[in-house]
Amino acid sequence: MEKFQQLLEECETDFLVFTQTVCPYCTLAKRTLDWKDLTYTVVNFDHEGDLRFDVVRETGHRTVPICYDMRGDEPIFVGGSDHLLKYL
Questions:
Q1: In 1-88, where do the E strands start and end?
Q2: CA separation, residue 79 to residues 19, 61, 68 (Å)
Q3: What is the torsion angle, in degrees rounded to the nearest 10, for the CA atoms of residue 14, residue 43, residue 32 and residue 22?
Q4: From edge to edge, which strands make up the β-sheet containing 76-79?
Q5: Among 67, 66, 73, 12, which residue's Cα sits nearest to residue 39?
Q6: Which of 6, 29, 68, 86 could form a disulfide with 81 if both were Cys (CB 3.0 to 4.6 A apart)?
Q7: What is the pLDDT of residues 32-86, one digit of tens each?
Q8: What 3-state class would DSSP assign to 50?
Q9: CA geometry: angle 72, 57, 34, nearest 5 deg
């Protein structure tokens, strides 16, 4: 949980996106953010050990991507790529 909280606290981009290596929905989310000229930090669960379990425990969201809007005072959990499309 500590690494997850650290990522939320230290992220300096518009969005924080948790992904996996082979994921068309993750690609869609990143392309959407690119299209909207929004910056984002990608954290790939394939390279982060047990971080996925902490993020799922916190959000209840079991699929990738898992997107957070970091532009306000507090991070806002957006959800997956479909949620991101509606949100933006």
A1: 15-19, 40-44, 66-69, 76-79
A2: 12, 7, 7
A3: 180
A4: 40-44, 15-19, 66-69, 76-79
A5: 12
A6: 29
A7: 999 999 999 999 999 998 999 999 999 999 999 999 999 999 999 999 999 999 9
A8: coil
A9: 40
Place of tokens 């790939």: 44
Domain definitions of the chain by residue range:
2-87
Q: What is the DSSP letter of 48?
A: S
| Domain 2-87 part of CATH 3.40.30.10 | yes
The answer, yes or no, to whether residue 1 has pLDDT greater than 70, is: no
Residue type, 60: G
Q: What is the pTM assigned to this prediction?
A: 0.94
Q: Which residues contact 21 (CB under 8 A, 6 or more apart)?
A: 44, 46
